[in-house]
Amino acid sequence: MSKRALITGITGQDGSYLAEHLLDQGYQVWGLCRGQANPRKDRIAKLIPELSFVDGDLMDQGSLVSAVDLVQPDEVYNLGAISFVPMSWQQPELVTEVNGTGVLRMLEAVRMVSGLTKSSGGGPPRGQIRFYQASSSEMYGKVAESPQRETTSFHPRSPYGVAKAFGHYITQNYRESYGMYGVSGILFNHESPRRGAEFVTRKISLAVSQIKLGLMDKLHLGNLDAERDWGFAGDYVRAMHLMLQQEQPGDYVVGTGAMHRVRDAARIAFEHIGLDWQEHVVVDPGLVRPAEVETLCADSGNARRELGWEPEVDFEQLMRMMVESDLRQASRERDYRQLLATGSW
Ligand code: NAP
Ligand code: F7E
Question: pLDDT at residue 16 above 90?
Answer without folding.
Answer: yes
